[in-house]
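Hi support team,

I've been running sequence recovery on a batch of backbones for a student project. Most finish fine, but this one hangs at about 90% for roughly twenty minutes before it completes. I'm not sure whether the input is malformed or the queue is just slow. I've pasted the C-alpha cells below so you can try to reproduce it. Let me know if you need the job ID as well.

Thanks,
M.K.
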C-alpha cells in the first residue's frame, strides 16, 4: 500500500487565508520531535511523508528533517504556499536536502481573487517563481487548489494557465473546502461553495488535464459531482485499495490515524450504484447541503478497475476485479466484526482521539508529545494572534476560536 503520512512542522504562516483549517497554535516542533515521527513512518513501512503546516518553510530545520526523512528511505514531499521557495537559494537548499516533490498551493490565477483568498498581496507572482525554482532544482511540482466560493467558477481557467505557462507540471490536486475547522468554520458564508457552483468548471478542468495526458486527484467531492472521473477521487481510491493515512497535528488532536473514508450520505445514496466506493459528502460543520447529492447509475466495477489497473499507481497488489472483490468483501467483514477498528471519518473529527497504537511509543504517556508548548512558542503564538486579529478586522473576516492549551502536564517550558 502506498500509505503517506503527514507531519505539521509548524502552525504559523506568512499568508492569512480566510478559510485556513489549520491556523496558528502554540505548539512547536524540534528536529528531535519530528525525527521520532519520521522513524515511526519508516517502522510502519509507509511510502512517504508530507511536511506541511501552517507554512512548513518557516521551520528553521526544514531542510534538515527533509534530509533525514530521505535518508531513512521515505519519499519526501512538502505542501507550501511557495512564498519562500520563490527565493532561489532556499529552493536550491531544499533540492539538495532531498525534497522530491513539492505541492504548491494556488487558488486562482486571477490576482484579485488570489489576494482576497490569501489575505496578502503579491502572492501569485511568488508562487509562479516558486514552481519555476522547484523545477529548476530538480524538485517535482504538483499544484494544490482548495475549491471555494470565489474560485468555483474558473477552476478550468486556472488549468489553462498552468498548461500553457508551466508545461512541466504533470499532476494537480483539488481539495474541496473543509468547513468544519479553524477560520473556515467561522467564515462559512464567505468561502464555502455549493457543490453545484463548481461542478461545471471542475469537469472542464479535469477534461483538460485528462486530454493533455496529465493526472489529478480530487478530495472531499462526492462522486455524483465528478462521475466521469470517479477514479480520481482520493477517498474512492483509498476505499478501493484499503489505504490509511496518519496525520501528526500540531494541536490538541495530536496524532490521528484515518482508516475510514466515508463521510455523510443522504437517503438518495441508498439508490446509487457507487455508494460502496464513495466518500459521500465531507461535512461536519453544516457547510454543505446533503440535498445536493443525487444517485448515479454507472458501473462501479469500471471505476474500480481503472483504479486497480492504473499503471501510474501500481500500489494495489490484486489486479483483477474478482480478487479485488474478495479482498474488499473481507475488509468489509473485518470492519463489521471489529477486527479493523473503524475511526470516525476525517482527521479533524472532534470525537477522533488518538488511536490506541498512536502516537509513537516514545511519545506516550510521559514522553515528548507531538510538538510541545514552550515559552518561546507561546510568545510567538500570542504575537501572531494579535497580528492576525488586526488582519481579520481589516479584511472583514472572523478570526478562528483560539486553540485551547493541552493539559499542563504535557506542556514543556524551556
Ligand atoms: S449519491 Fe451519494 S453515494 Fe452516490 S455519488 Fe452522490 S454522494 Fe456518492
Amino acid at each position: 500500500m502506498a500509505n503517506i503520512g503527514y507531519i505539521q512542522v509548524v502552525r504559523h504562516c506568512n499568508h492569512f487565508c480566510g478559510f485556513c483549517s489549520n491556523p496558528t497554535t502554540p505548539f512547536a516542533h524540534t528536529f528531535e520531535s519530528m525525527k521520532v515521527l519520521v522513524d515511526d513512518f519508516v517502522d510502519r513501512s509507509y511510502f512517504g511523508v508530507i511536511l506541511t503546516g501552517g507554512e512548513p518553510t518557516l521551520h528553521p530545520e526544514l531542510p534538515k528533517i527533509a534530509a533525514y526523512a530521505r535518508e531513512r528511505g521515505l519519499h519526501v514531499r512538502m505542501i507550501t504556499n511557495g512564498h519562500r521557495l520563490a527565493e532561489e537559494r532556499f529552493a536550491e537548499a531544499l533540492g539538495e536536502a532531498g525534497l522530491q516533490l513539492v505541492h504548491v498551493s494556488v487558488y486562482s490565477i486571477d490576482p484579485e481573487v488570489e489576494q482576497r483568498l490569501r489575505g496578502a498581496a503579491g502572492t501569485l507572482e511568488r508562487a509562479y517563481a516558486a514552481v519555476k525554482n522547484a523545477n529548476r532544482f530538480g524538485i517535482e511540482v504538483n499544484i494544490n487548489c482548495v475549491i471555494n466560493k470565489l474560485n468555483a467558477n474558473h477552476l478550468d481557467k486556472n488549468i489553462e494557465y498552468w498548461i500553457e505557462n508551466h508545461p512541466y507540471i504533470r499532476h494537480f490536486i483539488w481539495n474541496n473546502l473543509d468547513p468544519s475547522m479553524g477560520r473556515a468554520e467561522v467564515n462559512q458564508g464567505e468561502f464555502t461553495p455549493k457543490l453545484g457552483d463548481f461542478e461545471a468548471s471542475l469537469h472542464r478542468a479535469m477534461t483538460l488535464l485528462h486530454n493533455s495526458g496529465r493526472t489529478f486527484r480530487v478530495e472531499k467531492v462526492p462522486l455524483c459531482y465528478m462521475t466521469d472521473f470517479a477514479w480520481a477521487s482520493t477517498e474512492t481510491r483509498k476505499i478501493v485499495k484499503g489505504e490509511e493515512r496518519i496525520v501528526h497535528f500540531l494541536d490538541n488532536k495530536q496524532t490521528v490515524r484515518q482508516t475510514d473514508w466515508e463521510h455523510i450520505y443522504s437517503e438518495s445514496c441508498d439508490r446509487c450504484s457507487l455508494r460502496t466506493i464513495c466518500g459521500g459528502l465531507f461535512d461536519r460543520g453544516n457547510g454543505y447541503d446533503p440535498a445536493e447529492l443525487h444517485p448515479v447509475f454507472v458501473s462501479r466495477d469500471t471505476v474500480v478497475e481503472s483504479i486497480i489497473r492504473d499503471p501510474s499507481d501500481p500500489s494495489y497488489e490484486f489486479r483483477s476485479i474478482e480478487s479485488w472483490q474478495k479482498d474488499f468483501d473481507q475488509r468489509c467483514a473485518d470492519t463489521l466484526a471489529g477486527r479493523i477498528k473503524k475511526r470516525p471519518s476525517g482527521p479533524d473529527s472532534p470525537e477522533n482521539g488518538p488511536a490506541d497504537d498512536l502516537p509513537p511509543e516514545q511519545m506516550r504517556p510521559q514522553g515528548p508529545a507531538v510538538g510541545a508548548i514552550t515559552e518561546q512558542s507561546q510568545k510567538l503564538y500570542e504575537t501572531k494572534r494579535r497580528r492576525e486579529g488586526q488582519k481579520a478586522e481589516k479584511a472583514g473576516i472572523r478570526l478562528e476560536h483560539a486553540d485551547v492549551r493541552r493539559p499542563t502536564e504535557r506542556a514543556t517550558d524551556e
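--
Follow-up from support: It reproduced on our side and the slowdown came from queue contention, not your input. Residues 375-395 form the longest helix (21 residues). No action needed from you.
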